Amino acid sequence: MKIxxxxxxxxxxxxxxxxxxxxxxxxxxxxxxxxxxxxGGVVPEIASRRHAEAIVPVVSRSLGEAGLTLKDIDAxxxxxxxxxxxxxxxxxxxxxxxxxxxxxxLIPTHHLRSHIASNYISNKELKPPFLCLVVSGGHSHIxxxxxxxxxxxxxxxxxxxAGEAFDKAARTMGMSYPGGxxxxxxxxxxxxxxxxxxxxxxxxxxYDFSFSGLKTAVINLIHNxxxxxxxxxxxxxxxxxxxxxxxxxxxxxxxxxxxNNMKRLVxxxxxxxxxxxxxxxxxxxxxxxxxxxMPDKSLCxxxxxxxxxQAYYEYLSGNIAGSDLNAYATKSxxxx
Length: 336
Description:
Blueprint: E1 2-7, E2 12-19, E3 23-31, H1 33-37, H2 44-66, E4 75-81, H3 85-102, E5 106-110, H4 111-122, E6 130-135, E7 140-147, E8 150-156, H5 162-172, H6 179-187, H7 212-228, H8 234-259, E9 264-268, H9 275-288, E10 291-293, H10 305-316
Parallel strand pairs: 1-4, 4-5, 6-9, 9-10
Antiparallel strand pairs: 1-2, 2-3, 6-7, 7-8
Helix pairs in contact: 2-3, 4-10, 5-6, 5-7, 5-8, 6-8, 8-9
């Protein structure tokens, strides 16, 4: 089954053709990062306008690179939640129009479910059930994946997401958007034990995260040092902050795995590309005898291939949208 998938939830306009949920025939991404870098973050109005400009050529190029026409496609898929509402609406309305014009079924696909599904492309042997750590700029969840479309959140952030904390800390250190990637690179040359930073704990929910206090701690460290005229080693600050965030993520994730007797672990989302997170989980899972699956780094960020992968299983479960499909800025991964 060949699915033409569309993704426009934030600042990447993407289209891909995916076969049977596992094989990518084409994947095209038009990024807006350079434009949004001028403002230090994504400007929703600009993002929506650029999606409207890019979506037709991106979809056309995706079909061309796959060597297919719309007559060869079996279904359409589109990210409909969560994300920037204006950006989502561009993709959803384009997909609805294409469905109406071609008669192809339209599969509404949840953005976070798609991130998890990126692992089906990178690890073709992976099947549920498994426990997944979904970490991105807007989300930090521990998700029990019982089946391809049956998911339960057992842990989540109470405030900032891990990716958001990385980006804000990086911006305080003068790094350009998106700062989390640069922070990870600089941290490789630093001492993770140079600065003692807190490890926030949510006492009534042992799998939940809280990164707001940790983010504030590193920002205060930077500002206080600047006010005193003390020059900090940027690599050491980056390494210490990265170590603290990854420590929180790994500790809660492994506790959830032990308590729920899950030995097949998966990571997904933009922060799943973080070097220390990947190394730490690889080491810990080897010690514990757990299976660990990670997406290729090329699939960690937003893309349409992951949308096509998840859409295949949504289609098999009967999740087909009508012309009344709408976009939603927020929607639980449990609802699909």
